[in-house]
């Protein structure tokens, strides 16, 4: 078998066998296949695509390239949630303690942010003392003890995906549906959860800019999960505007705490309730039918009951208590929940004002994310440092009516020179129109 022949085969639209895909993934991971040949093959995939079977085979080849996390020592069926990325996405910070407070174990591995999409690890590390590097033994014991733990990804989890993603990023082939699907699902499968819920974001701030591509990606990932025995449900959510009212690490944690206190952003809470309810429904469906596929009606009934359970965790304060317990367990200072001054704060706050009267419409949510990134709130390169104190507040959302001179955003900055660039990015993110603007539909579709 030669890599040259497999490049030509895919270039000409051929379908690769499982053995051929295994050869490519193993050879590249081991260093036997050079970057230039792998780049050529990935570019052929970018243009010619892969079918569902090829994508599933590539996913499992990447899973087998490294370690698989064994969660069997954790009591009960484990569920995991993954977002395809967005702007202001602090969902895990709210969803995880809600689900854990409902009695469901949350054993989660998360990553750092790159570009305008924020990383959960970066956000949690803005809490003084919070430790995101747990040993596997500590991770398992903590979940069994308090139902929740979160750690950074291990060094040898899906090493093939790490190498391939870096190559895709460097050669302009990140936006390929089969390559995105195999990358996400290889990490989720290797992380050991039996139930996987996917938040497939759709819009100007997401990888998938339109509903058709979001639907294709969701369907492909659900099929991959189901084919390897992991119940998988995808929720397509809106990302045409930032989620919630903040973009920036410490600011997003504060907004998450406010949401857990029952007074935060409604859109953040609605997404968390939806995803969390499907996590619980998936677990209960597995328990009820011993692993066989539950029909849609059964899942929807379980979802509705779980949704009510999760709403109760906000009303009775148990989700907030669980977040406090979680912070303490991972050596963080849980006093931040009651005293936001303990978070890092920026040197300067600058008001961005509307230059005319009318209705707000977000057209470039990614620019709102970039407005935070240029301040130091995100990474242009993966080894860049992140400033947890900086970011932007979103004071007006799609459909809001504003007058000229109203504050529509606030920039939290440590560098006055970058404030002008951030303001420019923010103003590129939206337009102000004369006619009334419809608000976006937050939950677009559910894919089983």
Automatic annotation (TrEMBL):
A Pfam family hit: Glycos_transf_3
UniProt organism field: [Bacteroides] pectinophilus ATCC 43243
Gene Ontology biological-process annotations: pyrimidine nucleobase metabolic process; pyrimidine nucleoside metabolic process
InterPro entries, A to Z: Glycosyl_Trfase_fam3, Glycosyl_Trfase_fam3_N_dom, Glycosyl_Trfase_fam3_N_dom_sf, Nuc_phospho_transferase, PYNP-like_C_sf, PYNP_C, Pyrmidine_PPas_bac/euk, Pyrmidine_PPase_CS
Recorded catalytic activity of this chain's protein: 2'-deoxyuridine + phosphate = 2-deoxy-alpha-D-ribose 1-phosphate + uracil; thymidine + phosphate = 2-deoxy-alpha-D-ribose 1-phosphate + thymine; uridine + phosphate = alpha-D-ribose 1-phosphate + uracil
Keywords from the UniProt entry: Glycosyltransferase, Metal-binding, Transferase
Domain named Pyrimidine nucleoside phosphorylase C-terminal: residues: 359-433
EC annotation from Swiss-Prot or TrEMBL: 2.4.2.2
Cofactor requirement: K(+)
Subunit note: Homodimer.
Alphabetized GO MF terms: 1,4-alpha-oligoglucan phosphorylase activity; metal ion binding; thymidine phosphorylase activity
Gene3D superfamilies cross-referenced by the UniProt entry: Nucleoside phosphorylase/phosphoribosyltransferase catalytic domain (3.40.1030.10), Pyrimidine nucleoside phosphorylase-like, C-terminal domain (3.90.1170.30), Transferase, Pyrimidine Nucleoside Phosphorylase, Chain C (1.20.970.10)
Lineage: Bacteria, Bacillati, Bacillota, Clostridia, Eubacteriales
Primary role: Catalyzes phosphorolysis of the pyrimidine nucleosides uridine, thymidine and 2'-deoxyuridine with the formation of the corresponding pyrimidine base and ribose-1-phosphate.
Protein name per the record: Pyrimidine-nucleoside phosphorylase
Family: Belongs to the thymidine/pyrimidine-nucleoside phosphorylase family.
Catalytic class of the enzyme: transferase
């Amino acid at each position: 078998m030669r890599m040259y022949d497999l490049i030509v085969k895919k270039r000409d639209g051929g379908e690769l066998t499982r053995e051929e895909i295994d050869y490519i993934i193993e050879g590249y991971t081991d260093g036997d296949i050079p970057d230039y040949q792998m780049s050529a093959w990935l570019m052929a995939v970018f243009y010619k695509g892969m079918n569902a079977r090829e994508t599933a085979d590539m996913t499992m080849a990447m899973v087998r390239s490294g370690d698989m996390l064994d969660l069997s020592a954790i009591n009960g069926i484990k569920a995991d949630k993954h977002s395809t990325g967005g702007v202001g996405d602090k969902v895990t910070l709210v969803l995880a303690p809600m689900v854990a407070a409902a009695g469901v174990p949350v054993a989660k591995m998360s990553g750092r942010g790159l570009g305008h999409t924020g990383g959960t690890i970066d956000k949690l590390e803005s809490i003084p003392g919070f430790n995101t590097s747990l040993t596997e033994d500590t991770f398992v014991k903590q979940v069994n003890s308090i139902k929740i733990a979160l750690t950074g990804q291990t060094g040898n989890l899906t090493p093939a995906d790490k190498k391939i993603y870096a190559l895709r990023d460097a050669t302009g082939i990140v936006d390929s549906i089969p390559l995105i699907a195999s990358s996400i699902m290889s990490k989720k499968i290797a992380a050991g959860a039996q139930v996987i819920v996917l938040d497939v974001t759709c819009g100007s701030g997401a990888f998938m800019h339109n509903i058709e591509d979001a639907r294709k990606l969701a369907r492909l990932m659900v099929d991959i999960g189901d084919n390897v025995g992991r119940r998988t449900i995808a929720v397509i959510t809106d990302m045409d505007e930032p989620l919630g009212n903040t973009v920036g690490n410490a600011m997003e944690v504060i907004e998450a705490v406010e949401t857990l206190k029952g007074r935060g952003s409604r859109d953040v809470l609605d997404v968390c309730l939806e995803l969390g309810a499907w996590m619980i429904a998936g677990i209960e469906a597995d328990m009820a039918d011993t692993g066989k596929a539950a029909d849609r009606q059964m899942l929807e009934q379980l979802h509705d009951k779980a949704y009510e359970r999760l709403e109760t965790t906000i009303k009775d304060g148990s989700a907030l208590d669980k977040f406090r317990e979680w912070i303490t367990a991972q050596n963080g200072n849980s006093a931040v929940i009651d005293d936001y001054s303990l978070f890092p704060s920026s040197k300067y706050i600058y008001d961005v004002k509307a230059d005319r009267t009318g209705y707000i419409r977000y057209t470039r949510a990614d620019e709102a994310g970039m407005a935070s990134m240029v301040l130091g709130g995100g990474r242009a390169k993966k080894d860049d440092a992140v400033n947890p104190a900086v970011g932007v507040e979103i004071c007006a959302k799609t459909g809001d009516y504003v007058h000229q001179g109203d504050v529509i955003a606030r920039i939290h900055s440590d560098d006055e020179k970058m404030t002008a660039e951030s303001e420019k990015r923010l103003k590129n993110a939206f337009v102000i129109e004369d006619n009334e603007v419809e608000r976006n539909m937050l939950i677009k579709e559910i894919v089983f």
